[in-house]
Specification:
two-stranded antiparallel ribbon; 37% helix; Alpha-Beta Plaits; alpha+beta; 105 residues
Length: 105
């Protein structure tokens, strides 16, 4: 895209803008839960009661175990940004799928 500016005093400027190239990272290409990650990822959980917190962890484990195409980074982002922070909280920090599933038990 080109942007031009013509000043009243005779100053002229013209810029040519181009989109920067997109760099692909190995993480974006590997959808497996055990695939490369930027290190240990936090998955945040919260609920109104301790029992509800345990139930949420159980449901999350069930959900993730049945969907190997999910990326841990995406799950962690969704848990951190789309859920309310309630009274009882827990964080699962794990570097691979086995650790995450074990921590959710």
């Amino acid at each position: 895209a080109g942007v031009s500016s013509f000043g009243i005093s005779g100053t002229n400027a013209h810029l040519i803008l181009e989109e920067s190239p997109v760099a692909e990272s190995p993480e974006e290409n590997d959808p497996s839960p055990g695939g490369p990650t930027p290190g240990a990822l936090p998955w945040t959980l919260s609920a109104r009661t301790p029992e509800a917190l345990r139930e949420q962890a159980r449901r999350l484990r069930e959900f993730v175990a049945g969907r190997p195409e999910l990326r841990p980074v995406d799950v962690g982002f969704s848990l951190a940004t789309t859920r309310a922070a309630l009274e009882h909280r827990a964080v699962v920090i794990a570097g691979n799928a086995d650790e995450r599933l074990a921590a959710l038990d």
